[in-house]
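ok, trying the design again with the full structure, not the truncated one.
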């Protein structure tokens, strides 16, 4: 037996150890590498998205000729009158 095949589990009584299976250790190492790779890919995608969003924001800032304005008071259109009247009828019922 090799000393490296044993590990002390946290929360266990002092001196109690469990033998690790070599396959389990290899699986954990493989999973760790996979997670690190996925993490790096996600960070790269995040940086690309942030860069793209900042570019779009700059473009919107430069072409600020068009922007949304709040509604203004004025005569109601026929369609707006019909909708408001139907809402009033529904509220009364």
């Amino acid at each position: 037996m090799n000393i490296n095949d044993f590990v002390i589990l946290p929360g266990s009584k002092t001196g109690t150890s469990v033998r690790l299976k070599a396959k389990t250790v290899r699986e954990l190492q493989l999973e760790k590498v996979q997670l690190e790779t996925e993490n790096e890919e996600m960070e790269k995608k995040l940086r690309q998205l942030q860069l793209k969003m900042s570019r779009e924001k700059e473009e919107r800032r430069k072409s600020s000729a068009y922007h949304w304005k709040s509604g203004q008071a004025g005569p109601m259109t026929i369609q707006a009158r019909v909708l408001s009247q139907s809402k009033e009828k529904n509220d009364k019922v």
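Keeping the full-length input from now on. The longest strand covers residues 6-8.
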